[in-house]
Specification:
OB fold (Dihydrolipoamide Acetyltransferase, E2P); BirA Bifunctional Protein, domain 2; 27% strand; elongated; binds aspartyl-adenosine-5'-monophosphate; aa-tRNA-synth_II/BPL/LPL; aminoacyl-trna synthetase; ATP binding; ATP-binding
């Protein structure tokens, strides 16, 4: 029996195996807020209606004590659609020691030091459940679109997203190798076999950023498809974001309510096309809004905020200057100084949630780019091989899971969206 199914047991006996989340007691009646992982329920213990032992157990329960509670399911007297438990028996599994996380406000460092306990708090519980729904929505979207799941390696000898953010590890007699920054290069190889594929796994970037949107270990979904070009690549991304949002609105009502998430902006964008601005158009818009960003510079948080501030929909910024983008992006035939890439900026301050591009598919051009970036030739030979044996136009993108979950939840900082965050100054617990 799980609390999430309690409405099916109205009028019947029910058993909760879980923990005490909160308690109010007046001396003759106690209200226990119980949680079992699947949900929360109020259990009412009436002193005159239960045995002495059960009342004594109710009285000694402390926050987070573990227990098994039996009782009859009844409708909440005031709240429509809410059920509660009229308790007949309480068995205590363990009386918890004084719990460090109480109802009073705690600072972020204290909560992060106690992340192993903080995860039990209602909002944190809700965020992890939204994360689970976002993950399963991504799998479903891609399976519906005939992409298959491909597992790319974590240990890799090459750099996908620039050598400056690599985490190095000593690999036996092979010398230094790295933790993956993105599975993209390997996924490109796999889709020349399976046509359309996606991976999903932890990625690592030794970024010295202390923003609300940077982790050093985060989960990324990379997708890749053969015979897909730049515009279709953005269509696939837009479809995926709308699919995720729709799924969250369908499946996460309780969680979004706990998180006090205003759902209107999410609902609104479902029926609207996303805005697509070229990098040049974005520059013009930024200048007209007072930004002093120069052509050829990356967008900062403030710029992303300006570009989306009055937008009801996420904004694609596409066709960026080649000079600030990685070696694998295909040049735009209409202007070889630009590449056929896109960043998708979410609304409500979500920031960049996707980076994607059409990939360079010409052997000689790609080889020259790899050499120009000073990357170690031999490590990329297999990647170049893909352009030797049946090269095709192909495109893909990477979605940051934590930024997406953060946006869905309206979370202030993406450190709350991953169970155990790894930040530049935090690797514990
Ligand atoms: P990119 O570098 O844009 O693209 O990364 C893709 C997405 O990953 C998320 N992200 C992060 N999330 C949390 N902390 C970080 N430090 C961090 N860095 C990136 C963002 C970002 O949009 N290989 C390409 C994708 C591709 O073209 O297929 C890539 O890695 O949400």
């Amino acid at each position: 029996m799980l609390i999430k199914d309690i409405s099916k047991y109205a009028g019947q006996e029910f058993e909760v195996k879980g923990w005490l989340y909160n308690k109010r007691s007046s001396g003759s009646i106690a209200f226990l807020e119980l949680r079992d992982g699947s949900g929360f329920v109020q259990a009412v213990v009436v002193k005159a209606g239960v045995g002495e032992e059960t009342w004594a157990n109710a009285e000694k329960l402390t926050q987070e004590s573990s227990l098994i509670v039996k009782g009859k399911v009844s409708k909440h007297p005031k709240q429509e659609g809410v059920f509660e438990l009229q308790v007949s028996d309480i068995q205590v599994a363990q009386i918890a020691e004084e719990y460090p996380i109480t109802k009073k406000e705690h600072g972020p460092d204290f909560l992060l030091d106690n992340r192993h306990l903080w995860l039990r708090s209602k909002k944190q519980w809700a965020i992890q459940r939204v994360r689970d729904i976002v993950i399963s929505a991504i799998y479903d979207y891609f399976h519906e679109k005939s992409f298959i799941k491909i597992d790319t390696p974590i240990i890799t000898p090459n750099a996908c997203e620039g050598a400056t953010t690599l985490f190095g590890i000593q690999y036996f007699d092979e010398g230094e190798v790295f933790l993956s920054q993105s599975g993209q290069l390997y996924l490109e190889a796999a889709v020349m076999s399976v046509g359309r594929g996606f991976d999903f796994g932890p990625t690592f970037r030794a970024e010295k950023s202390k923003t609300k949107r940077h982790l050093t270990e985060f989960w990324m979904m990379d997708a890749e498809a053969a015979f897909v070009e730049h515009n279709e690549n953005m269509d696939i991304q837009e479809g995926m974001i709308k699919f995720i949002i729709k799924r969250c609105l369908e499946k996460c009502q309780e969680e979004l309510t706990i998180l006090e998430r205003n759902q209107e902006p999410l609902k609104k964008l479902l029926n609207l096309p996303f805005v697509r601005l070229t990098y040049s158009e974005a520059m013009e818009k930024l200048h007209s809004l007072g930004s002093d960003i120069k052509f050829g510079e990356d967008l900062g948080n403030d710029d992303e905020g300006l570009l989306t501030q009055n937008s009801d929909v996420p904004v694609f910024i596409h066709k960026w200057p080649k000079s600030i983008k990685p070696f694998y992006m295909k040049r735009d035939s209409a202007n070889p100084d630009l590449v056929l890439n896109d960043d998708l900026i979410g609304i409500e301050g979500a920031g960049e949630i996707i980076g994607g591009s059409q990939r360079e598919d010409d052997y000689e051009v790609l080889k020259a780019e790899i050499e120009k970036e000073g990357l170690k030739g031999p490590e990329y030979q297999w990647y170049l091989d893909l352009r030797k044996y049946g090269s095709v136009p192909h495109s893909g993108f990477g979605l940051g899971l934590e930024r997406t979950v953060g946006w869905m939840c309206g979370a202030q900082h993406i450190r709350e969206t991953i169970p155990f965050p790894r930040l530049i100054n935090r690797v514990r617990p």
